[in-house]
Amino acid sequence: MMPDHDGGERDYICFQKEQQRRWESLCLRCGACCGAFDGDPCEHLQSESSGRFFCRIYEERFGIRKTVGGRLFRCLPIREILHDSWPGREACAYVQRTKNILMEE
Length: 105
Ligand code: SF4
Ligand code: SF4
What we know:
Elements lengths: L4 H21 L19 E3 L5 E3 L7 E4 L5 E4 L17 H12 L1
The structure holds iron/sulfur cluster (2 copies).
């Protein structure tokens, strides 16, 4: 019987998708990383009646973006700004998670 390469690749892709889903599900959708607390948020940030936020262009979000006030900035993956300083970062689930991991080491 031939080895099932396609099956292995499918399993790997499923595993990667599941890892991605778990990572994304940690987000509290507080909007802090998009400027919700600094008075000049990204123009693509949308608030909900629940008090949470979402990105109107989430699938194409990375790259040069503009705030409501017209300031240009670069939208980056959260892992690239975890150690930077920005309003609300202390409440970010990923910042907290990283701190906890470092404390456990
Ligand atoms: S483009 Fe980036 S900064 Fe703007 S709302 Fe979307 S995720 Fe946030
Ligand atoms: S600051 Fe962190 S928890 Fe809040 S929306 Fe951004 S990634 Fe999600």
